[in-house]
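We treat protein structure as text, and this decision shapes the records that our systems exchange. We quote a single record here, exactly as it is kept in our systems:
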Amino acid sequence: MRVTLLQIDVDPKETVAARRERVAASVRESGRGSGRGSVRGSVRERGGADLVVLPELWPVGAFAAADFAAEAERVDGGPTAVAMAAAARDAGVWLHAGSIVERGEDDGLLYNTSLVFSPEGELRASYRKIHRFGFDEGEAALMAAGTRIVTARLPQAVLGLATCYDLRFPEQFRLLVDAGAQVLVVPAGWPARRLAHWRLLVRARAVESQAYVVACGTAGTHAGVEQSGHSMVVDPWGEILAEAGPSEQPLSAELDIPRVAATRADFPVLRDRVLGLPRPAPGR
């Protein structure tokens, strides 16, 4: 399975509408293999992607908390969802469209919500971020928490969905593995000053889960917070298959999905788990 990550520069001088159009164009190019996408640099070295991944809150910026309410939209029928569904359909790719500021249709609350579209442009999965960053400020104060572990079943693999700050909570990834995840997809808006943590945690989640981790970050600066970039694709043994630099660029890698099962069979560490598993009923 070929995956392409689009590491987007969330430039405050660019309008949300203009960025949405530009990113949609890059998604479309990612399925064609032409190398002429709107994300600066060659979209891919060869061939088209099966799965395209975008970063966290790329329409508005992960740290642009003052704009969250104004840019909030619905999962069903909002401008980003409509644009990304069309782009996925035109490109013929599975698209993890990063995340948007969702305005809950039923409760009116804000959520940091990831969207996954099929090559037919159908919304196949949505995940509301469980762990909100900010320590009672920013996202943590303005957004409600998701409550569900979410996977998305593609023909090639089962994706486990997480977002940015979730990386610091390994118990979520254990639950995703238990739900069948083979590829853990993590869109992010990770600050440059904690780049070392990003590189460490992405590899750690791959090693402990014995799964691929596809982690797509943003470039540029959001509300004065410099972003780390350095999107990464890591294999089930913790080896880095591809890593971006700090600037806007695409990044592609091949995932050998059968290697997940092979790694778990050859080094069956997950079999030896004890803590966190259901305990048998006491004997009589």
Helices lie at 16-30, 68-71, 79-91, 139-142, 170-178, 195-209, 258-266. The CA atoms of residues 93 and 256 lie 18 Å apart. The chain is about 25% helix and 25% strand.
